[in-house]
Amino acid sequence: MAEQPVAKARRGRPRQAEVARLAGVSQTTVSLVLSGNKQGIALHPDTRARVLEAARQLGYAPDPAARRLAAARNDLLGVFSFTATFPTDVAHSYYPILVGVEQEAVARGYDLVLFTGSSAAPGRGGGGAAELNRVRLADGCLFLGRHVPADPLRRLVEQGYPAVHIGRRDELEGLAWVGADYAAATAEVVRRLAALGHRRMVLVCESDQALASVDRERGFRAALGEGELARASDAGPGPVVRVADPAAEITASWVRARLAEGVTAFVAEETDTCAAWRALVAAVDAAGLTAPADLSLALLGAPPADLAGRTEPTGFDVPKAELGAAAVRTLTALLTEGGADCSPLVPCAFRSGHTAGPPPPAP
Amino acid sequence: MAEQPVAKARRGRPRQAEVARLAGVSQTTVSLVLSGNKQGIALHPDTRARVLEAARQLGYAPDPAARRLAAARNDLLGVFSFTATFPTDVAHSYYPILVGVEQEAVARGYDLVLFTGSSAAPGRGGGGAAELNRVRLADGCLFLGRHVPADPLRRLVEQGYPAVHIGRRDELEGLAWVGADYAAATAEVVRRLAALGHRRMVLVCESDQALASVDRERGFRAALGEGELARASDAGPGPVVRVADPAAEITASWVRARLAEGVTAFVAEETDTCAAWRALVAAVDAAGLTAPADLSLALLGAPPADLAGRTEPTGFDVPKAELGAAAVRTLTALLTEGGADCSPLVPCAFRSGHTAGPPPPAP
DNA sequence: TTGTAAGCGTTATCAG
DNA sequence: CTGATAACGCTTACAA
């Protein structure tokens, strides 16, 4: 007696064939009706109606794997992050970006598949590759964070898989990406400070050499190079200070020394820890000074959550939701037209805040 | 001139057949070697080595779509919420639950598909029904929030689709669910208050008749029924007050009136707005009283984000991440064994806080 | 206007 | 131990 074939998990899932039987048509017709009949093939309205009714009755939903295998598409967009997409440590979470991704994806009729790279065994060679390969189930994929292993990603891209990286990533030739325009936003902050009357300002960077950090420094230097700021910034030590241990190096006396040199504005960048900004605020406080009365402060990015209650820093906000939405737009452009030519840079919004004002009159 | 068939994204990707040719074996053998040979079929080590080498050389990576199609499962867990999965209004977001869902899903080798109720063509059709059917794309699905339409959900479940509801949902026969054990947690709070010496306490409910609210009231009454609390709570007006407009009804004079009746502890439940708790805190404040010196306060749940800075309320926390993880466990049990018999109730952790203490000595 | 049939890349079943 | 061969559910020429 022949064994019953292994009961597949797919058990109750209705397929096109069953819809076809119920509607009294062929499976092909069901496919035509249900996939929107892109071929422009003429279908009898009654047939169409019967098929739709049958599908509704059976609760039919297409199998994404089969759809994809048959060389069509899934209408699934992948979101891959090497670390957990929803970290327990809410601090540097992708949540705000995902808000934008979801909105834009929904608006365009895509569902989202979350591929979380197992953070386990990052050492092994084949490990990362296999992880990344899963995303092929989706029509295209968004990649989050700069920890996405470059090599497997490159292979994906080389083989023509539609991928968009969120955050600048131009080391990989041919990989599309969207990122915040840190350089322009930083330059804008410098210009605003200059407009307030500041002539000498200093940027405090952490030694972390993230791409975003490089961009900010570039924007900072570029804006300093404009007009009379150029001359002013030539004097004294460089306008950019890179510190390994902000809390130890950025002290009250350090601040006083800079003030004595004629610096009137201090700028720090947002990082995971915001150590530089924290140090700056603490040092100013310790020196018995107040912003914006005695000096001006600006933060290139958003303050950390635990400082949310304090005075809103002058600076800019990265439009994270917009970043996610832009990524989805770029990806869908890749999917449909095959080429996205819109700028990958998303502008940041200047935030007036309350830590910058005109420099105090020279003593 | 015949059009080239639509260029498949599949472009130069190596397949098992090519690996087989290179290794000089059959494609079946390649599949056996590469998929770990779960069948336990004996393979010659040399063959194995040759296949692996060929695969490596070609940079072979299995096509997840094909793999899943053949295996009759796609290792996808759906997450459906009627409202957006990532609400812009972060206040009552599912984030903490998703943290647990993701962790557990990753640990079990599943990927997540996010569906949103709003995702459908917002136009006509079966409305929620058609919407819900889309989840069939995943092997099983988690449902979030009590706004999931009951009827389509019932059909899904009746047809054997593996579904787990997060939050109690026993109106639907056969629907698996996991939920916080509000009754037990509330009873625990009452017991703690009793242990501190409180004999008469009152629960302030909002008129919203959520299941969670019912559970809490049940737990409250049950715990009151124990020991001498029973006698004490028999006197005066009932121990449970249900108010339509907390801000208007829970006033300083209301609090004083209760105190005069011998009530020494006030309990409110967490809701979306936390209106009852806010009203209670405001009323106590307006009466010039302080907790825990003059009376005790307890909050059945977590305080809203904007009150996070204030004194931590005594009460309990719903382990949201654990809830998500439990839901995933239940769902995967449904998927693999076909039956989950673990308790659907997740215990809540008592939170000592600082708003409860011994009742003041009687005047 | 509808049906037939040939794959898509993999897994699973058997007979060698 | 290996290799045909048949699904898996769907799309898409092409035939009727």
TrEMBL record, chains A, B:
Example of a GO MF term: DNA-binding transcription factor activity
CDD domains: HTH_LacI (cd01392), PBP1_LacI_sugar_binding-like (cd06267)
Keyword vocabulary terms for this entry: DNA-binding, Repressor, Transcription, Transcription regulation
Record-annotated HTH lacI-type domain positions: 14-71
UniProt xrefs under Pfam families: LacI, Peripla_BP_3
Entry-linked PANTHER family: HTH-TYPE TRANSCRIPTIONAL REPRESSOR PURR-RELATED, LACI-RELATED TRANSCRIPTIONAL REPRESSOR
Name of this protein: DNA-binding transcriptional regulator, LacI/PurR family
Organism: Streptomyces indicus
